[in-house]
Write a structure and sequence with these properties.
By secondary structure, the chain is an alpha/beta fold. It contains 6 helices and 14 strands. Strand 3 (about 30-40) and strand 4 form a beta hairpin. Helix 2 packs parallel to helix 5 (about 190-200) and helix 3 crosses helix 6 (about 225-244).
């Protein structure tokens, strides 16, 4: 089948994509619902993973074990780091996924897994510690075709850059500045690196695209817009799939 798998963490992040699918069938894998159908003639698997790294990795692994996959797309809402240049409703596309928590807290500050000397993944001779570069071809295609979402005024800006995956979302401005600078990152989330980890293990191309719902470090939900972020992201994903 060589399907495109689309993974989101919560249900409202997949509703528009699901409504754009044809010949939809529903099944259950590892206790999670999978929607099988077609978009623009392509075989699509759509799954809600649940929040966090373990749920995301479990879902990706379950799909890999049941279907031949062309690629995995992780989509949903995310928080933009303060100096990213992104605002609420904009679109971010990951060039690299980074574990922001895994490592060592030393007297001189935080160190990544290289400090321990044990990689998160070793694929052949290649070692992955905290960082997982994503598929460049998919990245370039995504940015190119998602521009249609801008032209249709569904969002105002599309930007690619490093994403950081954390277990605890950043609710303090100082911490958001620290993480953004440390990893030269534009966007924060709770699942992406775990899915990239699985994709590296199984050598599956991955794309990650997120709509910006808030600025990381700001816990004032009156300034958030999850609905707009999710809608813009899903519309961009539909444009991308049509262009793959």
């Amino acid at each position: 089948m060589n399907a495109v798998a689309i993974l989101t963490s919560v249900p409202f992040e997949l509703n528009i994509i699901l409504s754009g699918m044809k010949k939809v069938r529903k099944c259950s894998i590892a206790g999670k619902t999978v929607f099988k159908g077609k978009i623009a003639g392509r075989n699509i698997l759509l799954m809600n993973t649940g929040i966090g790294k373990v749920n995301a990795a479990h879902s990706a692994t379950a799909l890999v074990g049941h279907y031949p996959l062309k690629c995995i797309i992780n989509s949903g809402a995310g928080g933009a780091y303060p100096h990213s240049g992104l605002g609420v409703g904009d679109i971010a596309v990951a060039s690299k996924e980074i574990y922001g928590d895994e490592g060592v807290m030393s007297p001189s500050g935080w160190k990544d897994l290289r400090e321990i000397g044990i990689p998160a993944v070793q694929a052949g001779k290649k070692k992955f510690f905290n960082e997982f570069p994503l598929n460049k071809k998919l990245l370039h295609l995504a940015v190119h075709f998602a521009i249609n979402a801008v032209r249709n005024k569904r969002c105002t800006k599309i930007k690619s850059g490093n994403f950081v995956t954390v277990s605890s979302v950043t609710g303090v401005h100082k911490r958001a500045l620290e993480l953004g600078k440390r990893f030269n990152a534009i966007c924060e989330n709770m699942e992406g690196a775990a899915i990239a980890h699985v994709c590296a293990m199984y050598k599956i191309p991955m794309l990650e695209i997120r709509g910006i719902s808030n600025i990381a470090g700001v816990r004032d939900k009156r300034k958030w817009n999850l609905k707009l972020a999710s809608e813009n992201c899903q519309n961009a994903v539909l444009e991308i799939i049509a262009g793959l």
